[in-house]
Amino acid sequence: MPWLAVPFSDSEGREGLNDRFKVSGIPNLVILDAKTGEVYTDDGVPFVSEYGVEAYPFTPERIIELKEQEKAAKANQTIQSVLGTSTRDYLISNKGDKVPISELEGKYVGLCFVVNGYGPVVEFTDVLAKIYEKLKEVGEKFEVVAVSLDSDESSFNGSFAKMPWLAIPRGDKMCEKLVSYFELSSLPTLVLIGTDGKTLNTNVADIIEEHGFDAWEGFPFSSEKLEILAEKAKAKAASQTLESLLISGDLNFVIGKEGAKIPVSELVGKTVLLYFSAKWCGPCRAFLPTLVKEYNKIKEKNSDFEIVFISSDRDQNSFDEFFSEMPWMALPLEDERKAFLKKTFRIRGIPSLVAIGPTGQTVSKDAKAQLMLHGADAFPFTEERLDELQKELDEMAKGWPEKLKHELHEEHELVLLRRGPRGTYGCDGCEEMGSSWSYRCDECDFDLHPKCALAKEEKKGEEDGKAAEEAPAGYVCEGDVCRKA
After folding, report:
1. Count of CB atoms situated within 10 Å of the CB of 379
2. Spatial CA neighbour of 448 closest among 436, 456, 439
3. In this structure, how many other beta carbons lie within 10 angstroms of the beta carbon of residue 287?
């Protein structure tokens, strides 16, 4: 650091500054007027990150001025102002050719933010490339420009070499500026610019991920075109069967123990849970004992029920070890149907349970939540069953006290609160999910399950004692789920 510091030995001085400015997280940047001591801002990190040196002297007036300039820039936006700089009026192809930005005028332009090797972006750009070629084929005036977030030349070249479109040169300051300009919050992101140079949509990636290659028919994603896509998706969902999900060519089976092949036809007519999971995922290992317990309860009363494990494990040994703890079926580890199912149900986090009804229709894309809330009683995971369970809970609530004190929250009384038909919360007692009703303190944002609040003795769930494994690249594990980063 090229600036001054409070000595590390001056703990009293450092603690005093923390207290004075109520610092609760780092990095934290407080900016003062050195002469008057006036605090310009106690949240300077985002100002510096977003505006850099242009934010100086960091006064509220300067920040307002910058925001007004940004607002005006968006109002007067052109394809040149979005993609060019005072010293660069061209883009590059992956062959090194310089293409004038002026050639994009009058076209629809997609700005695709990319990072080399990041799974979700790689999967997305593969689909986008097919859509790009199709739109070119049918004569649409459409171009894509890669906005690389890679930090080095080799990473940039590695990703760009596989793309059939143009790019902003690597390291160009415009790449960083566009992250702020379009308030990039997730990847993949595809910003769509209209033929007049104005922004039509800050992210159509979700549309493409939902509809896959068929999304080309919805271009340029106007409300009318999206309605057409929605109708096609609805018709496709209506024609869905278990066979259309689990059969692909000669792959017409699932496996049982010791690799036994079980025809998919034996599952037809049953309620089937597709269980997306992996041994490396801590939340998956923690959830498995609960799932096994509830599975056995459901099977005792309903023979027309099954689960199929769809693994994200990295090697056969991990798959075999994890599957050995499961009393149900699975798809083989190296099976092409897994990618199709993950894409169909847009699985971004594990563990995840998708419920397929006896007719082959999807009855729930979040059966895990239903199972955690209601246990085996959630079967068969339909909306009708959830409504029945809600009515039962409402009837039970009539006998509960409206207010109570609890040893886990002695500061204030807890008030019985209805959370809505699908309202969920985290119980501060057992740390599991709750729904519909809770004993709550609004002042402290504290909730207890009715069963926890009314129980004489608090029951604690078993902790998963198995050794943790490292999540693979592209995943972040938080709470009760591992998600794609």
Report:
1. 24
2. 439
3. 22
Tens-place pLDDT, residues 409-463? 988 999 999 876 556 788 888 877 777 889 999 888 899 988 888 875 334 334 4
Q: How many CB atoms lie within 10 A of CB 445?
A: 9
Measured over the CA atoms of residue 41, residue 44, residue 50 and residue 53, the dihedral's sign is positive
Q: By the 8 A CB rule, do 428 and 409 touch?
A: yes
Specify the length of the chain in residues.
Answer: 485
User: 229 and 215 in contact (C-beta within 8 Å)?
Assistant: yes
Paired tokens of 390 = 């809600």
232 contact partners, CB below 8 Å, separation of at least 6: 211, 214, 217
- CB-based contacts of 320: which residues, under 8 Å, 6+ apart? none
Is residue 129 classed exposed, middle or buried when 0-12, 13-18 and 19+ CB atoms within 10 A define those classes? middle
Q: What does the pLDDT look like over 191-201, one tens digit per residue?
A: 999 999 999 99
Helix (H) or strand (E) holding 311: strand 305-311
Element counts in the chain: helices (H) and strands (E): 16, 25
Alpha helices in 247-382 (DSSP H): 282-301, 316-323, 337-344, 367-374
Contact call for residues 147 and 112 (beta carbons, < 8 A): yes
The answer to whether 124 and 163 have CB atoms below 8 angstroms apart is no
Residues 287, 256 contacting (CB under 8 angstroms): no
Instruction: Note the pLDDT of residue 422.
Output: 59
Q: Greatest CA span in the chain, whole angstroms?
A: 80
